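yo, ABC transporter substrate-binding protein is done. seq:
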Amino acid sequence: MTMRLLALAAFLILAALPARAEVQYPLTVTDALGREVTIPAEPKAVLLGSGFNLVALSLVHPDPVSILAGWASDMKGDNPEIYARFKDKFPKIEEVPIIGDGITVSFEAALSLKADLAILANWQADTELGKQAIGYLEQTGVPVVVVDFNSDALNNTAGNMRLLGQVMNREEQANAFADFYEARVKRIRNRVAEHKEPGPTVLMDAFPNPEKCCYAYGTGGLGAFIAITGSRNIAESLPAQGGIISSEFLVAANPDVYIATASPGGTYSAFSIGPGVDPNEARETLARAVSSPFLTNLKAVKDERVHGLWNFFNAVPLNILAAEAFAHWLRPEIFGDIDPNQTMKEINERFAAVPFDGAYWISLKAK
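structure:
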């Protein structure tokens, strides 16, 4: 009798729990480019125009590889350690057909895979080839949704995660991540509003090269993460995407803080940072990068205000970690309690299908 009562009680408790809200299909959404897209049914065979969007999918879906019909090789090529982590947990990823390299798309491969949805990144969809791909896919009955974790990321990322959750019938998880993201951005903005004094001047140097100076981020992409802290980007006069600056310009600006960006293994630079990279390797290679004659005499280097960051935060919704790292580095007097390590720990515990590890950010001066 007791067992029957326990079973009945358990049934009543489960019955009282709210069911996961189901998206109703056909579903019409507005994507990152303002295009209205109708999704006939819950997607089960998805094409990824950029492999980096697997990271976004993995924050809302417990087995994102199971819904892939094909994907691009750009994440695998640029960041093989992330790919290795996915392969360890989801070995079938090795069987997913490649449809392009993140820049080009094989229309023939895409057509042969019988996909029911394609997801493109905004920077792909803005190109002539991307526009052709969208037209081709839609003509063959494959709806295309464009997502944007790159341009104006601090304002757009949460909304794009909500969009992804709606399209994939994973609204509960996606909305939870978006709320998590927005709360952390708001914390930074509110604190800067209370401390209106200007922060330090900053150079953000993409893939430092010891033989020449320097590709500086402008106010777009990751450059916006300087401004949110109330700090000043010495390259703010450049186009939003940034550009080459001369050593003379750099010496005259003499920034208070230097931040380098790169990828694992020094793919494009002597500096190595990102998924799977040991912190000691990241710190040692960053030290070598700032020993170049273009950088060694800067105020930032002499004062040991030198930091490094994974460049591909500009392609994934994990970019909140970059915002928190910038806040902590640039204005420690008001952001000393913000710790991106704790934020990553919470992302791994609450959202990530595959935990993220490695040195995604580093300071030359160890605490």
